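Worked example

This section walks through a single chain of length 159. The input is the sequence exactly as stored; nothing has been trimmed or padded.
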Amino acid sequence: MAGNNKLSVTENWVLDTCCMVEETCAALYRYFAELYADQPKISALWAKTACEEDSHADQFRMAYRLHGNGMESLKLDDTRAKSLLAKMHSVYKHVQESPPALKDAFQFAIQMEHSLAEFHMDSIASFSDKSLEKLFISMRKCDQQHIEMLEQAYRSLQD
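Given that input, the structure is written out below as C-alpha cells.
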C-alpha cells in the first residue's frame, strides 16, 4: 500500500470482492430462510444470520470508503478473493438448482462459516488504527457466534 494510505486499484477491488462474498452469503441464508419458511424458528435463524452477513458487507464497504486510512496493508491478494467469490456464486447457484435438506444446509453453512472466517478484515489487513482494528475483530467473533448458533440448531435436529 502506498505511504499516503491510499489503496491501490487492486486493493480496492479486493475489499469490494470481500463485500460481494458477504452479500452472496447473506443471499444464500435468505434463500434458506425462504426454503424452510414452514419452520418459523429455523427460518428466523437463517434470516438473522443473513442480516449479520449484511453487516459484515457494510464493514467492508466502510473500509473501502476509508481508502486505506487506518490500514497499513492488505494481506489478501486479488486471485484468492476472486476465487472465493466464484466459489460462493457457484454454491449459491447449486443450492438453488438442487435445494438441500435442512440438515445438509446446516452442515454446509457451518463449513462455509469456518472457511469465511479467514477472509475477514482482521485477517486480511494490518491496521494502524486500533479502534478500526477492534471493529473488524468483532466481525470474526460474530462468525464464531454464527458457527455456534448453526451447530446448536443442527444438533437440535438430531434430538
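What to look for: The chain is about 75% helix and 5% strand.
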